[in-house]
Amino acid sequence: MLSTTERTRLGRAKHKARTARTDLYDLLDAGSVCHLGVVVNGAPMVVPTGYGRIGDTLYLHGSTGARSLRAGGEVCVTVTLVDGLVLARSAFNHSLNHRSAMVYGVPRVVGDEEESLAALRALTEQFAPGRWDAVRPPTAKELAATRVLALSLEEASVKVRTGPPVDDEDDLGLPVWAGVVPVRQVFGAPEPDPGLAPGTGVPEHVAALSGALAPSGGTVGAR
């Protein structure tokens, strides 16, 4: 079960809250970008960044010089997945079908090299499963230039909205179309780097993202 604190308890629309920890895991595993909220020099800063999850820990990374990763103190991380545009008969009742998570905590800087590599692997796999084993691993110099933060998922909330618009009863007879327009993330056909070595085809783990197939050195087309 997810923790219940004053910060994670929904004040409104409590029926949208999800309390199963698996709902949090599924949402995080389906996303690729989070928003990291920190306070830098007394001013709020919200930074979009990639992330990876291992168990109950969320990992973030960036340059050792990044202000957002050097701020210290408490942070708030959010992830939102939009599933549909909810178009109502009135402007007031428009909404979004979505899944969102909010995580609070004080992240720790990862100093152990083994954990850093595991975290970077999780981050890489979050974008494209199978990618870590296909690429060159980080060098000692690259690791030294990278700061990895570990944030516990202990204090977190999940909010989900599904279904059609909820219009006022007096508006139901209006001659205005209402309903849901589904929103889905679709990957296009892979576009090769112009500097690829001759004969380098699209690997299976990349082709799997968009359902594209290509022989070694061949072209890629969407199925």
From TrEMBL:
It comes from the Bacteria. InterPro entries: Pyridox_Oxase-rel, Split_barrel_FMN-bd. PANTHER family: 5-NITROIMIDAZOLE ANTIBIOTICS RESISTANCE PROTEIN, NIMA-FAMILY-RELATED PROTEIN-RELATED, FLAVIN-NUCLEOTIDE-BINDING PROTEIN. This is Pyridoxamine 5'-phosphate oxidase family protein. It comes from Nocardiopsis tropica. The lineage of its organism: Bacteria, Bacillati, Actinomycetota, Actinomycetes, Streptosporangiales.
